Amino acid sequence: xxxxxxxxxxxxxxxxxxxxxxxxxxxxxxxxxxxxxxxxxxxxxxxxxxxxxxxxxxxxxxxxxxxxxxxxxxxxxxxxxxxxxxxxxxxxxxxxxxxxxxxxxxxxxxxxxxxxxxxxxxxxxxxxxxxxxxxxxxxxxxxxxxxxxxxxxxxxxxxxxxxxxxxxxxxxxxxxxxxxxxxxxxxxxxxxxxxxxxxxxxxxxxxxxxxxxxxxxxxxxxxxxxxxxxxxxxxxxxxxxxxxxxxxxxxxxxxxxxxxxxxxxxxxxxxxxxxxxxxxxxxxxxxxxxxxxxxxxxxxxxxxxxxxxxxxxxxxxxxxxxxxxxxxxxxxxxxxxxxxxxxxxxxxxxxxxxxx
Amino acid sequence: xxxxxxxxxxxxxxxxxxxxxxxxxxxxxxxxxxxxxxxxxxxxxxxxxxxxxxxxxxxxxxxxxxxxxxxxxxxxxxxxxxxxxxxxxxxxxxxxxxxxxxxxxxxxxxxxxxxxxxxxxxxxxxxxxxxxxxxxxxxxxxxxxxxxxxxxxxxxxxxxxxxxxxxxxxxxxxxxxxxxxxxxxxxxxxxxxxxxxxxxxxxxxxxxxxxxxxxxxxxxxxxxxxxxxxxxxxxxxxxxxxxxxxxxxxxxxxxxxxxxxxxxxxx
Amino acid sequence: xxxxxxxxxxxxxxxxxxxxxxxxxxxxxxxxxxxxxxxxxxxxxxxxxxxxxxxxxxxxxxxxxxxxxxxxxxxxxxxxxxxxxxxxxxxxxxxxxxxxxxxxxxxxxxxxxxxxxxxxxxxxxxxxxxxxxxxxxxxxxxxxxxxxxxxxxxxxxxxxxxxxxxxxxxxxxxxxxxxxxxxxxxxxxxxxxxxxxxxxxxxxxxxxxxxxxxxxxxxxxxxxxxxxxxxxxxxxxxxxxxxxxxxxxxxxxxxxxx
Lengths: 356, 267, 258
Known about the structure:
By secondary structure, chain A is α+β, with helices and mostly antiparallel strands.
């Protein structure tokens, strides 16, 4: 029981390339900025976009191999669309019963199933309403009930929370997590929101510019991001470079220029590596720090944002860009504003290094 | 080369002038109908309208135009679907062909139908071999009227199909619905306004059809003499009856357009 | 922009110049002529077209303007005020309707009704119209040809037996003729003149003498016409002059020549 996908799909000039496998029971989240290919992925899996080459195999059934494309209606892939796409001329119940009814289930049984899922999602009392008479959150639940009523082997939820306001979103997220936990098949949530991805996902697929750039558990990605988006996802500074030894110390010579001093144990010079520094390990100061054990970069503040009572300061230090996270007090003391010139320093031991 | 967009004052001027033209146009259309109504022998109306000939013609008209609307729907939907959804090289040719009856003088259409389906027509032998003879029958009148009125259905449905949000069809597919189920349960309900407009326009055009019917199906009081034919027949002997029949036709058409095409008209 | 303007001017000239030339040609006239407006029933169209030309040749000072339509339509137009100097009707009733303006109508032609069938038909006599399955087309009783056809069949005692075979009562004789010509109908009853105009494509079967129903055509000059002399002259021309000759050539019967 699993989904195996190796996909090359094209839409216009956009190309998606991805290879991954998903196990049932694990909530997978495909995350990436707009235009990264995650929606294309969803459509390719659902049969709404034939793939050019590769394979999509769901529980041993080949859905697509680039030549034979199983039509969407025969895939047993449930899809909840970003815009829900509830059928406006049908009641909530008829929407929910549409799937079973379309696959030959007798009317009464189809309606029973539809009602079961509406009840399960807490909107059973709205069964007779048309979608036009539902609130955003209610419509969301009906749409999910409709997708689940088909008893799919793979369930795809495209941006399930993005259309909701903050309060409904928290409530719906709780419900979603509960319902998805009971769902036995393969489940994939599509989102552009890193926070949502980290919060929901048990396994993440990170997309950038049509490529699957990293996959793993949120923890793996948090500890070892391998792509800029993954790094911003987990909020760390990510650098690419090559190991070099000299003066009895070890450096990462950054691809973009500059170098970072790191603790040297167990690393082979010449190896290509990622280096990460968490923003709260970065200290900002007006004067150059005196301790030579620290890496120090001099740069110009390019911007700031406030996150959860902390201030993130983005610094352009020549070829390197680095983000520091400090307290609002510290920010006030340093009188930080765009254009301020500051030193950013961090301990070698705070740098995480792992092979590329 | 680029033109400046009309200034607000220019738009306002147009808003003053064009409604006047529109009003005059409406009056010009209304005037003959009103003149007809003024001329009508209202005192004899009941007698004229309940004479057997009139009732037969009205009944035939209802049968023929309803039949034509149904037949136009059966033909028009596949054609409109093909034009709206299927990409193929001859699409504009197909569109031109199926809309041709709109520009063809109906009487020529009737003769063309005889050439195709008449006793000596291209397919006359084939039809005769399965026991079908269309000319001079009510079925033949339905065919003639359909030939003329079907383009209205096709145009209406094609524009309706082009206006649909196809993502709903994709959603239905992911729920396990095959092509026919999608058409039946998603496309057709969403197409309802276009269907209603198409039926209303087709029905109204069918109701007034004269030339193709008389050329293809003749004019038999119990078979093919629909209201327009009865009116033409009455014109030479009984002008009063012709006028009353004409008003009856106007009344029926208006009723149908208002009931069926209500949303289209009030849009 | 200049290019576009030049193109526009060229296009405009292309349309306007020929129109101007046509107008100029239309305006050129050797000498002023009296305009004689002749209203004639549809079935007379060929005869009157030719007769009008010959009348103009004989009377260079007169220009004949011909209007052709069903007698009932022409009569209605006259009632509503249309100017007609001469009215030739296929129907006595329609002539009566305009009796105030045309007080002295005279019969100038007669037309028999005949049976027509496609050239290859097995129908030989009018009795064959009662055979089952024969498709007969008649003119509607609302037009004279239809009434004459019914009269003829009634006189032969056949109408009730032919009626079930009648598939259409056409609104004019041309409709009957075309249905028979196209082979959609096996037989029709039309005027002898129409049958003659169809030539070899149709076989014409005369009706027995006891069914010799004749349509009479009446012609009259308008008394208060500004060209009443010319109008009377045209009526005479159609009764006894060159017009009568043309009528006979088109299979009309004319009153015994003087």
